[in-house]
Amino acid sequence: MAAATDVGIPEDIRDIVKASVTGIQQFIDSEVLPLERELQPILSDERKFFRDDGRATDQVLEARKQVRMKSADAGYYGMFAPESVGGGGLGVRSMVFVEEGMYRKYGPGRPLITWAKGFLSQPTIASFVDGPSHMLVAVSEGVRGEFLPGIAKGEKMVCFALSEANAGSDVWGIQTKARRDGDDWIINGSKQWITNAPYADYAVVFAVTNEQLVAERKGGISAFFVETNAAGYTFDGVLPVMGHVGGDCGSMSFDNLRVPADRLVGALDQGFQIAMFGISEGRISISANCIGMSEYALDRSLEYAQQRMSFGKPISEYQAIQFMLADMAINIYTMKYMILQTAALVESFPQTGRMPVKEISIAKAYAVEKTQECYDHAIQVHGGIGLSNELSLNEGFRIARTLRIPDGTGEIQRRTIARQMLRGDTAF
Ligand SMILES: Cc1cc2nc3c(=O)[nH]c(=O)nc-3n(C[C@H](O)[C@H](O)[C@H](O)COP(=O)(O)OP(=O)(O)OC[C@H]3O[C@@H](n4cnc5c(N)ncnc54)[C@H](O)[C@@H]3O)c2cc1C
């Protein structure tokens, strides 16, 4: 099999991409897989992986932390975060190739990578919902000095707390409020569906600071860097999804949570932009994951179709099977180059001043929907064994289905695409 990164890598990032892909694969082989073997009894049974309340067990959390910190030491954990927050500063195109290479080799369904992209991928490379990211660039100097080093090292974790029970797609509908009290802010409200909420040491919490601006949709939401062990902060529980018995998503509430003024992230009333910054990063990262995940499904299907006999022939000789393999290839090729083009447009933002909002939404909507299609085909090519937990193609299917909701549903991506075009952005 040709390595995922052998073709199409632009000259200017070829060396760093190849070194990073090889380095991460070596890191996983030498640091993570031995841990996987050691923890196999826990990892192969969700009832041992999660506690009764749905949180991962202490042993699992300790192992994840070990992976994060070793990955940070080796320079991988924050490699795509800006240098100003302790990251490696690599660009979006590099991220696409590196995440593709990682997911293609290790897939979504190995025991360690199951449960909402849980064990292996999440701790190895940080994202805006758990570690150092572009979203943290705007923190105050005080927060930068006191909290970011621990986050960059992988010792401490953050979460991104925007959604609420009655406000998901419609961000302007959030009800959490922050009011000024002397030098502090007092936050009241609650959040739901927050990835990493059960484990985070800190949360970036979005709250209304000016109701009039929010009503006019011109601002009025602010972001705050909050410690999750502060008085007034309560973690309310895990929200398992897609048949799992526990998970990484949860809800929390704030009851007169007092936050010092220097915990404001970015400018007052301008938190919406910070949220969109994080979400845009998430959309591209999810899309990049999807390329490798889909390639993993295709690789397994190509292998299996050539060895599985039916009616005296390998099933790969039947056109019905060939068409599914071909459709997977069409999906992968299209999503890969769509995402790479979008990544190039994001990287050229400092020169062009144009953020490719439409293209990011096109890429995210397409990648997640087509990844689900790839896993559906892969399961079909495998027949009964495709549904088994042993191969975990079913986990890939569940992850792909899950990814159609966070960071903007398919409908919200289409809404964004249409609105951008109706505003005159019809460039392709
Ligand atoms: C696994 C997971 C992880 C998540 N992680 C985070 C996180 O870390 N931080 C965070 O803040 N949030 C997180 N979320 C929340 C996520 O962003 C929201 O679930 C998502 O934005 C959808 O919001 P909702 O669930 O309230 O659905 P709703 O907004 O109520 O939507 C319900 C349905 O209506 C459709 N719809 C809504 N408005 C329109 C419209 N204008 N036009 C057409 N259709 C529309 C939607 O597409 C959907 O089909 C996560 C969610 C999940 C499932």
Question: For this entry, what is the oligomeric state of its chains?
Answer: single chain
Average pLDDT score: 92
Q: Trace the largest sheet across and list its strands.
A: 1-4-5-8
Reported by name, the CATH topology of the domain at 158-271 is Butyryl-CoA Dehydrogenase, subunit A, domain 2
- The CATH class name of the domain at 158-271 reads Mainly Beta
CATH architecture term of the domain at 158-271: Beta Barrel
Order of helices and strands: HHHHHHHEEEEHEEEEHEEHHHHHH
N/C terminus separation: 33 Å
Features:
binds flavin-adenine dinucleotide, Butyryl-CoA Dehydrogenase, subunit A, domain 2, 428 residues, four-stranded mixed beta sheet, alpha+beta, globular, 10 strands, disordered N terminus
Short recap of the structure:
The chain is of the alpha+beta class.
How would you sum up this structure, described in words?
The protein is 50% helix and 14% strand. The protein has 428 residues and is an alpha+beta fold. It has a domain at 158-271: Butyryl-CoA Dehydrogenase, subunit A, domain 2 (Beta Barrel), CATH 2.40.110. The strands form three sheets. A four-stranded mixed β-sheet has the order 1-4-5-8. The protein has a four-stranded antiparallel β-sheet with strand order 2-3-7-6, with no helix packed on it. Strands 9-10 form a two-stranded antiparallel ribbon. The model is unreliable at 1-5 and 110-118 (pLDDT under 50). Flavin-adenine dinucleotide (FAD) is lined by residues 116, 129, 160-163, 168-169, 193-195, 241, 249, 402, 405-406, 408-409, 411-412, 415.
